[in-house]
Amino acid sequence: MSGGRFWQQLEKGQVGDSVPLAQALDEIPWNADGLIPAIAQQHDTGEVLMLAWMNREALEETLEKGRVCYWSRSRQQLWRKGESSGQVQELREVRLDCDGDTLLLQVDQKGPACHTGRRGCFYNRVRDDRLVVDKPVLIDPASLYGK
Amino acid sequence: MSGGRFWQQLEKGQVGDSVPLAQALDEIPWNADGLIPAIAQQHDTGEVLMLAWMNREALEETLEKGRVCYWSRSRQQLWRKGESSGQVQELREVRLDCDGDTLLLQVDQKGPACHTGRRGCFYNRVRDDRLVVDKPVLIDPASLYGK
Q1: Residue pair A27/A59 in contact by the 8 Å Cβ criterion
Q2: Which residues of chain A have pLDDT under 50?
Q3: Residue A49, Cα to own-chain centre: how many angstroms?
Q4: Do B133 and A14 touch (CB under 8 A)?
Q5: B8 — phi, psi (to 5°)?
Q6: Is A133 an 8 Å CB contact of chain B?
Q7: Exposed e or buried b per residue across A9-23, where buried means at least 16 C-beta atoms within 10 angstroms of its C-beta
Q8: Residue-level pLDDT at B53
Q9: What is the largest CA-CA distance in chain A?
Q10: B2: which chain A residues are within 8 Å (Cβ-Cβ)?
Q11: A112-142 pLDDT, tens per residue?
Q12: B122 to chain A: nearest residue by CA?
């Protein structure tokens, strides 16, 4: 909960107070792999679509281009969301939390965000002593990835 | 994106298919510290309140008691949300994502979720080349924590 001095100072801010973005990026406490988690939320419905990770390069590209780019931990490379599937995330808003260690992205997601072809990744719901799939596949992933 | 075989199998599930929850908990790919990120979303407004971390014990307690318990990385102990501030999170729903490596909690948050006394933690918004505080403090944190 308690971040560095920079974030503790910003905590005391009133509405409208601000700091230079470049300085904030320098103060993000990137994890040991140089990453920060990013939550993507559909801007108009509020649905939480997915959580993925960004390094500084991915975040800077996202801010610059207005289209979301993550860091793929499995492929160890920049992951321009939708570059193979066409299901891009247009960026509407970026927020950092109180400690500067999590991003919240408001996005406009074209089609399914999830690689399974579902709208979002959180389709497994706990119900009593079971984990239940409760969201449908919208598009066959084979057609999304051209396999 | 590509999780273990258990999650890959579950990906293929139709709506209504399920697996035992105990098995799913065994298959969560806890990180090197034994943790998984948990997003807390206010169940009725859709506001993303915060992201924190859970170990297996915290998740099991949360499921059992219906009140959210995290793992505090700074204090290295179970963190029963609201135990010192009174600002508890009643649990409404728990979801796991496609890879089983992120939790999405629907909660009913009493008062501020953020230790700064703001409703949620994501009060720092990127606007052009500035990071701007755009949410007010609702309760003086000194009164929340009795300092």
Answers
A1: no
A2: 1-3, 147
A3: 9
A4: yes
A5: -65, -35
A6: yes
A7: ebbebeeeebbebee
A8: 98
A9: 52
A10: 74
A11: 999 999 999 999 999 999 999 999 999 998 8
A12: A97
Burial code (b: 16+ CB inside 10 Å, e: under 16) for B78-91 equals ebbbbeebebbbbb
- Structure confidence by residue, pLDDT tens digits, B13-60: 999 999 999 999 999 999 999 999 999 999 999 999 999 999 999 999
Q: Which residues of A touch B114 (CB under 8 A)?
A: 98
Structure token digits, residue A81: 């969301």
Nearest to A13 by CA among B125, B144, B41, B51: B125
Whether B135 has its CB under 8 Å from any CB of chain A: the answer is yes
Tokens 């990127």 belong to B126
Report the gap between the CA of B41 and the closest CA in chain A (Å).
8
Identify each DSSP E strand in chain B by its residue range.
Answer: 18-20, 36-42, 48-54, 69-72, 77-80, 89-96, 103-109, 124-127, 130-133
Residue from the list B17, B37, B114 with its beta carbon closest to the beta carbon of A51:
B37
Q: B126 to chain A: nearest residue by CA?
A: A94
Rg (CA), chain B: 17
**pTM for the whole structure:** 0.96
Q: Does B139 touch chain A (CB under 8 A)?
A: no
d(CA A21, CA A111): 31
Q: What is the pLDDT of residue B63?
A: 98
Helix (H) or strand (E) holding B138: none
Alpha-carbon distance A115 to nearest alpha carbon in chain B (angstroms): 8
A14: DSSP letter: P
